[in-house]
Amino acid sequence: MMARSCATSLLLLIAAAAMFAQVGAPPSPKVKLYMPYKEYSQADNKKIVAMFQDLRVADVSDGMDVVGLANVGIANAEIKALRRDTENFTHRIVGVAVTARYLPTNRREIQMDKKTIDRWYDELTSETFEEMLFPGSILVIDGAEDGESRSIGSNNIMQWHKKGMLGVVTSGGLADSDEIIAEKVPAYYRRLARGIRPGRNELESVNRPVMCGGVLVRPGDIVIADGDGVVVVPREHAAEVAQASRQSWTKSDCSAHSKRRFSRRNSLLWRAAHRPFQFHYTVRSIATPASWSRCLEGKRTCT
After folding, report:
1. 17, 140, 187, 196: least CB-packed within 10 angstroms?
2. What pTM value is reported for the model?
3. Segments in 76-196 forming alpha helices (H)
4. Could you tell me which CATH number the domain at 42-236 has?
């Protein structure tokens, strides 16, 4: 009896090892991947993200225009904030993308008992991307066509948050919305969903290029999200876009003045009140976005 039990355990270990080897194995020569994965150091991530601090989605959109990336990276307005904090702007996130892609399943089960559900969570619709999350990351989930699958709930979003994830952006479904709002973890989503993942979707890939809100998102890209929606900046253009975004609303001396005078909250409100082309504001030149006047210091106009 003991020998049979040992043999069974050995077979299970061999099967598990084979499964994990298959998952980690390189693709067949018949599979072609044309968008390589690029890894960035945490030091580089922090440096790039710092360039976008206090910039809004609208500011970054202006910067994208300046560098020739008009209509690139602006997610469909269907991707919206679950909550808005207009006091402290805690719903706003700026971070580095970690990506995952769920697809609708074509498997069917006679009965979804606990054993079957556990098997699905372990083998088919797992959350292995949790291992890839790091402080300053933003999880981007491509789940646009996975139906009623609730890929995000109040429990797993808190687990991800403990890993340092700043927030989540998904083109798929979200549940437990009341609890997530109470937990104050920023979430940007397309629709509400009530169904469990087992029997509905499967995890296709982690840290591969995905589409979310109609835009390409690659691991390492910079994600900015606020009440206006979500914008994704290609990593190779991030520094250039950040610089252009800041130049489009203020000169450096005005920026320093605003930082001395205003808190983060008031600075955001102040800039919103001084957007270009508003009737109470004098614009000296509109030749390029970089020449817009965006700062007032007393009665003096900064251009």
Report:
1. 17
2. 0.77
3. 114-119, 154-162, 177-183
4. 3.50.30.40
